[in-house]
User: Which sequence fits this backbone?
C-alpha cells in the first residue's frame, strides 16, 4: 500500500559559501533562478504534488528565510531555527518534534538548493509509490549523471543487486547522483545523539542494515552550487520553468 507523506522538511540553514558574493546579503535558498527563488521552487514542486505541511530549518540570515515564506497561502509552514548550523542530520534531528505529529510513518526531506524538471510523474509521487516503511528506513531519489546539469562532479551511488551502494574512496565513474530529495522514517534517528552531523551517516546506517531504498528519477536535475552553475542553469531552463 502506498503511504504518501504529507509533510516535508526543507534544509535551508546553510549560507552556500561556494556561491561567493551572491550570499553576502542573502542565504543561498533565496537566490533567484529565472525570477523565482530556489526555496520557492522547491515549495512549488511540493505543493504541486499535494504536500501541504512544511518544516524549514534556518540559521544564516534566518529572518530572511522566514519572511520569504510567511505569505504563502494554502500551506502550513513551521520553522526550526538553529543558533549554530547543525548540518543536515543534526538539523533534521533537531526538527523531529515538528515532524513527528504527521510524519510517524515517514516524511520527505529536500535540500533547498536543487532544481529539477519532472519528465512524467513528480519526484515526490515516485518516492511515495516506492516507499515501504516496513522494509525501509531511508528512500533516496537518485538521478543518472547523464541527466544532471550545473555544478555536477562525479556521482555518489552505484546500484548493485537492485540496491544502492555509496561510493568508496578511490572509485570513479559513478553513475548516479543523490538529488537531495528523500523519504526518512523517524526510527533511523533512534539512539542518535543530538549535535552536528551529516544525514549521510544515516544513509550508511540504513545501507548496512539492508534498509536503504532508491528510485531512479527520469527527469532533469540541476545543482546550482556556484555562480557559474547559476548562469548555466538559467540558460538551460529558460522557458521550461
Assistant:
Amino acid at each position: 500500500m502506498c503511504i504518501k507523506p504529507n509533510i516535508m522538511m526543507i534544509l535551508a540553514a546553510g549560507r552556500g559559501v561556494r556561491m561567493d558574493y551572491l550570499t553576502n546579503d542573502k542565504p543561498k535558498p533565496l537566490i533567484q533562478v529565472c525570477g523565482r527563488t530556489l526555496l520557492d521552487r522547491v515549495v512549488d514542486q511540493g505543493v504541486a504534488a499535494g504536500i501541504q505541511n512544511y518544516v524549514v530549518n534556518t540559521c544564516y540570515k534566518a529572518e530572511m528565510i522566514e519572511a520569504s515564506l510567511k505569505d504563502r497561502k494554502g500551506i502550513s509552514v513551521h520553522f526550526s531555527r538553529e543558533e549554530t548550523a547543525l548540518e543536515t542530520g543534526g538539523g533534521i534531528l533537531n526538527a523531529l518534534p515538528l515532524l513527528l505529529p504527521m510524519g510517524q510513518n515517514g516524511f520527505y526531506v529536500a535540500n533547498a538548493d536543487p532544481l529539477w524538471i519532472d519528465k512524467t510523474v513528480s519526484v515526490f509521487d515516485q518516492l511515495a509509490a516506492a516507499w515501504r516503511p516496513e522494509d525501509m528506513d531511508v528512500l533516496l531519489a537518485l538521478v543518472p549523471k547523464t541527466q544532471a546539469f550545473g555544478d555536477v562532479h562525479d556521482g555518489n551511488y552505484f546500484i548493485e543487486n537492485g540496491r544502492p551502494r555509496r561510493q568508496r574512496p578511490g572509485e570513479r565513474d559513478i553513475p548516479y547522483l543523490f538529488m537531495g530529495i528523500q523519504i526518512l522514517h523517524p526510527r533511523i534517528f533512534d539512539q542518535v545523539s543530538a549535535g552536528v552531523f551529516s544525514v549521510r551517516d544515516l544513509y550508511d546506517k540504513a545501507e548496512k542494515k539492508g534498509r536503504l531504498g532508491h528510485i531512479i528519477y527520469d527527469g532533469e536535475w540541476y545543482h546550482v552550487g556556484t555562480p557559474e552553475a547559476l548562469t548555466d542553469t538559467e540558460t538551460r531552463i529558460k522557458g521550461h520553468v
